[in-house]
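User: RNase adapter RapZ. Structure?
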Amino acid sequence: MRIVLITGISGSGKSVALNVLEDTGHYCVDNLPPALLASLVDTLVEEGLESLAVAVDARSAQSLATLPAAVERLRAQGHDVKIVFLTANTHSLVARFSETRRSHPLSHELRPGQNPAARRTLIECISEERERLSTIEQLGHVIDTSELSANKLRAWVKDLVAAERAPLTLFFESFAFKLGVPLDADFVFDVRALPNPYYDLTLRPLTGRDAPVIDFLNAQPSALDLMNDIRVFVEKWLPSFKTDNRSYLTVAVGCTGGQHRSVYMAEQLAAYFQQSERVILRHREQ
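Assistant: Predicted structure:
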């Protein structure tokens, strides 16, 4: 069975991701206690279902510790298990809860001996949830949704789930430093030292995927040198991540606005590595 576990911080888009998976034919279950995962899989296998998506969150605090072992048992039984961890910075989460006027799931929990009138603040709930899920975050692929629209998150989840089973999937992601560094990045490379096409009025409306911008940067020795340095670095360390049984590695490339230099560099690197690796290319600001 193909199993996708969606987990992460409340407000980071778990419902959006689960809806995407439901639309692609997965049998979906929201807020399942990890202790019930194995029995659910057994039941659905008996019924002949092939694709399952499960959302797990911090409300299952008592059984969260059993999730890593449950995942390993399922994989040992031959099931294809992917884990997607969604997160966002605290500022974005607070804004989302304010916009929707919904309460945080942990706000209804009381600490031992706590007066019912003295509930956690939203910031305290987010902090507590991050702490509870800190070990789970290391199990799968992290997606930082701080600067993502719902439509872009849907597309990224589809790409991730569609990825063929391979020893490691290599992500190249462009971004704008002015909007923050992606929280899901394993490596971050800064290409702001390169000549900026933005200052050429004919190139400003274009992106790093357009031929005139590509030609402009290809003509810059510094761009080619930096590209080669990043390529050599990734090639050198990629085997170590594979032997460490990593499933995903995210290489983020940033420039000022996330439109020209970072897009160009991510595109070129992805084109090079996809000749030998499973590669997914993403542009956060486009």
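The chain has a mean pLDDT of 91. Residues 221-243 form the longest helix (23 residues).
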